[in-house]
Design a protein that fits this description.
The chain is an all-alpha fold. The chain is built from 15 helices and 2 strands.
Length: about 375
């Protein structure tokens, strides 16, 4: 499906988002605060970066000789990696971390430091996922290939009957795939789709930057430890994979319950490319919050348990989502627009597993 042919309704329930935007703007004006991050974001950034790099340097300087403790250090790095992705890189690449574009660009490059590509991420996440959420064939977050079925509009194969069982292992491979082959495949696919031009018209420059970032990444994370530590090279490779297993699994179980649960809808455009609803209502139909009262979870996942608020206002820093959620929920109720919330994180994960089983068995 050609993403450029999809058009959202310009008339259906437009008053909802117009009213909501006005109220959100008034909230920031009345409280005399900026939509960007604050000192709490700075403290969080320092904490999460430390969670990733302190274990790395402890490992590099051979502080612990026990392989079990070394493995634990890489597991902590996995938590730090996911946390930076949720709370630092994510806001920065949305332009929501700081009003200073240079700060956003620098912090956004943490995607590259962690093994992914900030360029590809912006295209997949900002352009395709946020614009066409849950639209099969366009939103790549629900298009993992034939091995998984994330939409009722995708073909069902025999193996999908068991996807609610094997999905969790595949989720753990997500960032490992990014760090190896996915970024290269994506970059060439996005070039063919004409999407790389949205970032930089010089494709050779983008490819060169990707190659350099991969060399630096594998250099500091694998080559340097092999050269300068006493740990055998094969354990370093195993630790590297372990770190990605942890990070990939955490990232997946946070993002998937926000869009692939029983309350989620999977609208498709008609033959002319027109969607039934306007963009904002579409986001409300395809997105859900979870565990809104869990402060620790919300801190760690960068407010992405308030996924509705994030999708409606991706250019607003996540430190404001909890307060904004009251405004969004109230406005949605007034305009009879769905506002889906799972009370707990584990409840949301269970709901995701339930829908995977329904999609896999053909119930939906």
């Amino acid at each position: 499906m050609d993403y450029s042919s999809i058009k959202f309704s310009g008339t259906n329930n437009m008053e909802f988002f117009t009213t909501l935007r006005g109220r959100v703007t008034e909230y920031f004006k009345e409280n005399n605060i900026t939509r960007f991050g604050n000192y709490k974001m700075v403290l969080k950034t320092i904490s999460l970066i430390a969670m990733y790099f302190v274990p790395y340097f402890l490992f590099m300087f051979d502080v612990f000789s026990s392989l079990w403790i070394q493995a634990l250090l890489w597991i902590i790095m996995g938590f730090g990696m996911a946390g930076i992705g949720f709370s630092v890189m994510h806001d920065a690449n949305h332009g929501a971390y700081s009003k200073n574009a240079t700060v956003n660009k620098i912090l956004g490059l943490f995607a590259n430091i962690l093994g992914a590509s900030a360029t590809n991420w912006k295209i997949q996440h900002n352009v395709l996922h946020h614009s066409y959420t849950n639209v099969s064939g366009v939103d790549e977050d629900i298009s993992p290939g034939n091995i998984m079925r994330f939409s009722p509009h995708q073909p069902r194969y025999k193996a999908h009957k068991y996807q609610h069982l094997y999905a969790w292992f595949l989720y753990a491979l997500m960032t490992l795939q990014w760090s190896t082959v996915k970024d290269f495949k994506q970059l060439f696919r996005y070039k063919k789709m004409g999407l790389t031009k949205k970032v930089d018209k010089n494709f050779a420059k983008l490819f060169t930057h990707l190659m350099i970032s991969k060399i630096v990444y594998y250099g500091y994370l694998i080559v340097l430890p092999i050269i300068f530590t006493d740990t055998p090279w094969y354990f370093i490779i195993l630790f590297y994979i372990l770190m990605h297993f942890v990070a990939g699994f955490i990232l997946a179980i946070v993002f998937q319950p926000a869009h692939v649960i029983p309350s989620s809808e999977f609208p498709l455009p008609d033959v002319s490319g027109k969607m039934d609803n306007n963009w904002a209502v579409h986001q409300m139909m395809t997105t859900a919050n979870f565990a809104p009262k869990n402060k620790l979870l919300s801190w760690y996942v960068g407010g992405l348990n308030f996924q509705i608020e994030h999708h409606l206002f991706p250019n607003i820093c996540h430190v404001h989502y909890k307060k904004l959620s009251k405004i969004v929920k109230k406005t949605a109720s007034e305009f009879n627009v769905p506002y889906n919330v799972s009370p707990t994180f584990f409840g949301a994960i269970a709901a995701h597993g339930k829908l995977l089983k329904e999609f896999g068995t053909g119930v939906r």
